[in-house]
Every structure is written in structure tokens, then in C-alpha cells.
Amino acid sequence: MKKIVVVGGGAGGLELVTKLGQSFGKKNQAEVVLIDRSQTHIWKPLLHEVATGSLDINSDGLNYRAHAAKHHYQFQLGTLTDVNPEKKALTLDSLSDDMGHIVLPERTIEYDILVMAVGSISNDFGTLGVSDYCYFLDSHKQAERFQQALLNQFLRVHQEGQDAKLKLAIVGGGATGVELSAELFHVADMLKAYGMPEMSGKRVHVQLIEAGPRILPALPEHIASLATKELIRLGVTVSQGTRVTRAFDGGFETAEEDKIEADLMIWAAGVKAPDFVAKIEGFETTRNNQVLVKGTLQTTNFENIYVIGDCCACQQADGSFVPPRAQSAHQMASLVFNNIKASFLSEPLKEYVYKDYGSLVNLSRYSTVGSLMGNLMGGSMFIEGRIARFVYVSLYRLHLIAIHGWFKATVIMAAQKIGKVVKPKLKLH
């Protein structure tokens, strides 16, 4: 029996392993294993809501082990440190508890087919002080860590009186930085109902810092312009063409040697695949550690290793690379599933063609803007307001359907609606 190992339970990895389990694991045609360093899955585009407390990972997250039991695959908790393509084996780091006691030693897992879906992490470009003083939002644990610090700062500002303000600086004008900026004002306004009657968005100062000429560089310019106007209307200071050269305890320093003071600093500028990926012998990688693949999403040197999601460097016909988005991870997962299935039947493999369905940016309850259709009709259709918000929410619902099926996904969505009525609208602990 062949063993298929998927490393990384993000949007693409979890959808793929669900399909593999239902198709091969259920029929005992293959052993399917998912490896992830966390016990819980959360859709990555929602991490900014976890960071502000708008979303509770304990109620809205998915437990891998429980999901594995229902979808006929195995789950192993661990952090991948190395892959040996020649021996068809990978190494997982030892696992320790909070007291430093080793729970599991370093392990070696063999495979017949490997799918790398390890995602991406923030790229600080070696900027001095960033790793010491900034918060990152690469995982739900990092998001929860920031959420606790944010609650403490809100408490401080409330106790200090009406003249006190909370200063936050966010580096990176991509979707994460933009959506987080808006969500922070929304959360500050909601705290009025939870024992902080003097708190409001007016007591929050958010500065969004982008090194490029405009925020949202991956989206059409008119969408970025509209988002900029909306952020400024909320009270965000949008600093474009501003390059940060150093982070220190209490703020950032720019290339012009200006100081930007902040109580909390978030780094959301640029992404790269984890550093260990570039060290794997036989993998061809880009400067951002992404693994170069053929059109079939197999690595250039190993036909039994596939790569999907943010860690995948797939070149398109025009020479550009597929952008690291949830929709591309979803499409890649579908293709790799079909190609693994085809390989079992000795049928030819298909090549991946990225389909751009458009992009959306959700500015909390204030606005949602974006474009639909993308290259499907040779152009794009601009949308905003309620329609855009509906489409944005629908993307998450499609993800739930992919990993749970229609029936359970519908039940989960209904339960989430009920939960919003009976539970606090904010995570307050």
C-alpha cells in the first residue's frame, strides 16, 4: 500500500488531504498522513480577526485529529526540519511540553508520495530589530499572542483616561495590513459594550507603512485607491513610499531617519517559504525559498514530490509566478489530487493553469472592495459594499464545504450564526 504524506494543513493542504482520505484512505487503497506543527486549523485570511479577538480559535477553529478520524486519514503533530528525497523520508523535530520535557523524540517518516504545503512566513528582509520587537501574524498562535497584548493595551488606555491613546504601527500594505488596520477601529468601538464605556476608535492611532508607491500592490490601482480613502476616513495614517530600516523598543526608524512611535508594532511586509525549505538537497528554490515546480506541480528533480500553496513557485506562460493566495492553493490542491489519482491509474498528468477569480479586501464592518472574474472574461468587474461582503464571506464558506462537505458545513455556518447571538462579539480573555 502506498503512503501519501501531506505536510502543512493550510487551505490547500487540508483540502487535499480531505480528498485523498475520502478517495484512497476510505477504500484502503493508500495510507494518507497529514503533518502539521499545530493541532488546530484556521483559514489564514481570517488571522487578522483572531489577532483582534473578533474570531475565537477555540470555537471557530478545526481540530486536525478529530477531522482526520472522520475523513479517513492520519494526523501527526510535528515540525518538519528536513526531507531526504533519495531515501523518501522526512524528519520531524522533537516535541516538548511547556515544561521543556520531551513528549516525542525526533522522528523519521517514510513516504511514497510527498506533498509540500508548508505555506509561508513573514519576510523581515533582515531588518534590524524586527524579530525582537514586532508581532507577526503567520499562525494562530502568533495572532493569539498579539490579541493578548492588544487587550492589555486597551486596558491601559482605558485606565489612563480620555487623553490617552493607543498607537499601533503596521508595516506592510498588503491585504493583511489593510484589513487589520480597519479591524482595530471596529474592535475599539465594540469595547464600549464590555466594561470600557470611554473606549472608541477615536482613541486608537494606526499608522500603516508601505515601502512601495501604494498599498495593495497586487490589486488594481482603483481598488487600492478606494481602500486608501476608506482607511484615511477611518483615521488610519497611510504612509506610502516609506521604507523601514530599523525596529526598536517603542517604534520604527525609516530610511529618512524619521521615528514612528508605537505601543504595538506588527510586521506584515512580504512573505517567504520557511528557511529550511531552501536547504533541502535537490530542491530548486527562489530567493524567497519557494520550490520551483513543473507544470504538473511536481518538483523539477523528483516526480513523487508535489508542491502547492505559498511555498510553490509555479511559473506561468507570461513569465510571472502564480501569486500566493488562498484561491491558488485551492486550485493547486484540486490539480494535485487529480494527478495523484491519474498516477495510480497510469494515466497522463495534467498541467496547472492559474485562474484568477478576482481579489477582495474586507475593511471590517466599514466596507468591502474588490474585483471579480479576473482573467475569466478578459477583464474584471469592480464590486463594493454588501455585494462584495457577501462574496468575501462566501469564499470562507466554500472552504468549509471543501473540508467538511455540504451538510456539515451548513450546520457549522448555522452554529456560528447562533454563537454570535449568545456569545460575546469579542474574545475578552
UniProtKB/TrEMBL annotation:
Residues annotated as domain FAD/NAD(P)-binding: 2-333
Leader sequence segment: none
Pfam assignment, any one: Pyr_redox_2
Cofactor list: FAD
Highest taxon above the source species: Bacteria
Entry keyword set: FAD, Flavoprotein, Oxidoreductase
Alphabetized InterPro entries for the sequence: FAD/NAD-bd_sf, FAD/NAD-binding_dom, NADH-Q_oxidoreductase
Family indicated by similarity: Belongs to the NADH dehydrogenase family.
Name of this protein: NAD(P)/FAD-dependent oxidoreductase
Lineage: Bacteria, Pseudomonadati, Pseudomonadota, Gammaproteobacteria, Oceanospirillales
